[in-house]
Amino acid sequence: MSTIDVSAASYSLEQVSASLEGVLDLLEQQSEQSEKCFNAFCLLGLLKAQLTHVVAEQMAVK
Questions:
Q1: Which pLDDT band holds residue 58 (cuts at 50, 70, 90)?
Q2: Average pLDDT over the chain, rounded to whole?
Q3: Which phi and psi angles does 46 have, rounded to 5°?
Q4: Dihedral of the CA atoms 36, 46, 22, 14 (nearest 10)?
Q5: What pLDDT score was predicted for residue 20?
Q6: CA–CA distance, 53 with 3 (Å, rounded to integer)
Q7: How far apart are CA 26 and CA 40, in angstroms?
Q8: Secondary structure of the chain in HEC code, one letter for each residue
């Protein structure tokens, strides 16, 4: 069984979170014209909130 480098994983989570922000911006713009984009915006918004929470918890532990 291998070990996980927590600092590398945390850095990766922060990068994913930042990338999601860009996707959310695009989906928000398109959500006015597309219900599918609105649905994706809502789901990814929830995912980003959870990811932000996990990253914040990891930063508090350090």
A1: confident
A2: 87
A3: -65, -45
A4: -150
A5: 92
A6: 23
A7: 11
A8: CCCCCHHHHHHHHHHHHHHHHHHHHHHHHHCCCCHHHHHHHHHHHHHHHHHHHHHHHHHHHC
Task: Name the maximum alpha-carbon separation found in the chain.
Answer: 48
Q: Which two tokens stand for residue 8?
A: 């590398």
Choose among 3, 53, 44: nearest CA to 21.
Answer: 44
At 42, list the tokens.
């809502």
* Amino acid (one-letter) located at 29: Q
Share of the chain above pLDDT 70, in %: 90
Taking Cα atoms as reference points, which of 4, 3, 1, 12 lies closest to residue 54?
12
The model's pTM: 0.76
The number of CA neighbours under 13 Å toward the Cβ of 14 is 11
